[in-house]
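Now for our target.
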Amino acid sequence: MTTVKLVLEPTVIPLAEMTLDPKGLEALMEWVRDYRPECLPKEDPQPMDLFPHDLRDDGRDLTGDELLVELAGRNCYHSYGAKAGRKTNREYIAHSQSGTVPHRSIMYHAKMTFFIGGISRRVSHELIRHYVGADRTEEGSPSQESTRYTHHPGHFIVPPRILDTSPDAVVQFRQDMEQAYKAYLDYEAREVQAWTDRHGKPPTGMDRKRIYEAAAGLLPMQASTSMIWTTNPVALAKLFLERTDSSADAEFQRLAKHWQSIAVGRWPNLFHQG
């Protein structure tokens, strides 16, 4: 029987985020010097003097995303440097997002990109259904692995319900996935061999893609997939609120809770917990 790999936990890896351009900050400081000189705290300020606080918070360096959100807010009110009081980055962002009308627009400047793996195609479809779209104010930008260019490696995501039922249920799930994966491999092998027999060489390019895309239809929805996902704190906060709830899809809950712990750990001031 074909051997498959059962995946029990999702993988979420932060890949990229916004960074501040030192030359841009210097140019901004010069603009402030001309437009709002009273904001600068001294005669010969440095670009980081635009912020009225230390650039470390609780023993860690503040991220570019956190500083960018603060900078966007401070520009709206010209509350730079000496005019800003001594609020920390955490206090500033928390205050801006409090009350009945939070200053939401500044949060959209922060962008973060993740690699997401160890999720089923079924849950990836839930992500696409609910968190992507040009008409949404909260959205994500996904680039998902292709089923036409890539051969599936036989990884399948165990649904939490099956994982929590009994060892026998997991054994049966493995057998079901092995059977489905064998059908996938057998179809590919037959079609590749048939093409090779007709043309005297293995299929490449579009001919191989046609075989792969047809074969992918034989894989169950619990077949694994991966994607690169770029989003913002507002969109993530919405996702975490909705998908860590006990009523959410169990596999999606597992992903959302893991994703939330990583986001809060990396950008705590953008995901203030109260």
